[in-house]
Design a protein that fits this description.
This protein is an alpha/beta fold. It is 38% helix and 14% strand. The protein contains 15 helices and 13 strands.
Length: 431
């Protein structure tokens, strides 16, 4: 179906066959061809200057949904949402640390730290919109497959909305902090003896048959929320777009969301030019980087293997949307080995900022782009850190306490007797 006259404020459109359905249609994919859906909005009825003024006024507003870093932008996220399920989320900082400039080889790197969201990752931005939509359509239950952050976020927002949540995660493949959160927030948690790609295939099929609302980033409303990482950082930069935005890529929901956000911000006059996107994968889970290296002539699928469990994904669901995002922004896709992402993580952590392993591909990828000459030291670069340092304490303790020989930046604790002499001996050895 195509809306001819009286287009609603927002609707959903299939990215493969162009079929259009109502904004409130609950099907997670196109019913005609199974393609990925995208939410489309009529251009805002007020000018870019008026929009920017409204966003600015809301930024310092009273606590609650309006000052949320997602719903502040509601005209370009989900204009028709009236009552929203909001923690609130977003309002994450842009951080600068000289030690990270030096390590990456740039003059002034700003890090947008999405680990400062309520459940510790950027997923909350998509989930507030996804769960709001689930309530709007009267979903009886919500579900997702996850490497851990999506499930923690879904569990928290479903608890707030009072809707049962079902999550499928790879058994033994989820970092401790994320599994603990998912259980504590009360989601029905299934540990699947398989990998993330298998979990996603299962939940994708099951939700169609069981009439449970799917809240993986296949769901286009998740993408609408994740766009606000970009809107918020552009607002923090007074709508003066940077040269580059560097970020981790796994299932490619973020890549898709960032591309869509920049397309809309540009089309609707909020920014004069688009930054280039740089999507970074872990080398053992880099099907998108392989496709990019071949000019996107073919879609690759791999058996994923990396220490960064968040992005241990071999068959990313939002591939088609992400290809469009990279093409439209003259973007690049690259990968970094685990050794480099761990080294980058140790540097981010030791700077006092801290992040989870998957997030560190941002800094490791940026260093490579500078070494290759793609990013110039004077370029204005925003790096996105996607998750909080406490998400994966297991890997941290292995890195600092156990690995032999100690890896770069390892900070070994020293066990001592409970005496002043023992303490003095250590301090003497240090000086
Ligand atoms: N960084 C973190 C911390 C993540 O949790 C994820 C994805 C990504 C980056 C990659 O983002 O999938 O949009 O390309 N985590 C998902 C999950 C898959 O289930 O939590 P993407």
């Amino acid at each position: 179906m195509k809306f001819q006259t009286n287009r609603p404020a927002s609707w959903q459109s299939c990215m493969s066959c162009g079929n259009e359905v109502l904004e409130t249609d609950p099907a997670p994919r196109c019913k005609l061809c199974k393609g990925l859906l995208e939410v489309r909005h009529r251009p805002p009825e007020i000018s870019a200057a008026q929009l920017i003024q409204r966003f600015t006024e809301r930024r310092g507003g009273p606590p609650g949904a309006t000052s949320s870093g997602v719903w502040r932008f509601r005209e370009i996220v989900l204009p028709s949402a009236e009552s929203v399920v909001s923690y609130p989320e977003g309002n994450t900082p842009l951080l600068h640390r000289v030690a990270l400039d030096r390590w990456a080889g740039v003059d002034h790197l700003l890090l947008k730290h999405e680990g400062h969201n309520p459940t510790g990752s950027f997923k909350d931005r998509g989930m507030t919109v996804g769960v709001t939509q689930a309530v709007r359509i009267g979903a009886r239950a919500v579900a997702c497959a996850s490497t851990g952050n999506t499930s923690a976020s879904l569990a928290a927002y479903a608890a707030q909305a009072g809707i049962p949540a079902l999550v499928l995660v790879p058994s033994g493949g989820v970092a401790t902090g994320k599994l603990a959160q998912t259980l504590a927030y009360g989601a029905r948690t299934l540990l699947v003896r398989g990998d993330f790609d298998q979990c996603l295939r299962m939940v994708d099929q099951a939700t169609t048959e069981l009439a449970v609302y799917l809240l993986n980033s296949i769901n286009p409303f998740r993408i609408e929320g994740q766009k606000t990482v970009i809107f918020e950082l552009l607002q923090q930069l007074s709508w003066d777009a940077p040269d580059w935005i560097v970020f981790p890529a796994g299932n490619l929901g973020n890549t898709a969301a960032f591309g869509k956000a920049l397309r809309e911000a540009h089309d609707w006059g909020l920014i004069a030019r688009k930054p280039r996107l740089a999507a970074v994968q872990a080398e053992g889970a880099a099907p998108f980087a392989r496709s990019f290296a071949e000019g996107f002539s073919r879609r690759h699928r791999v058996k994923a293997d990396t220490v960064a469990t968040a992005i241990k994904i071999g068959d990313p669901a939002s591939y088609d949307r992400a290809v469009a995002a990279i093409r439209e922004t003259n973007g690049v896709v690259l990968s970094v080995p685990d050794s480099e992402l761990l080294e980058a993580k140790a540097v981010i952590d030791a700077s006092g900022v801290g992040c989870e392993p998957a997030s560190a591909v941002t800094l490791a990828g940026l260093r490579r782009l500078v070494q290759q000459g793609s990013v110039k030291p004077a370029d204005r670069v925003i790096g996105v850190l996607t998750g909080h340092i406490l998400k994966d304490p297991g890997l941290l303790l292995r890195y600092h306490q156990e690995l032999d020989p100690p890896p770069p930046g390892a900070n070994r604790p020293i066990e001592i007797e409970p005496t002043l002499e023992a303490l003095e001996a250590v301090l003497r050895a240090d000086s």
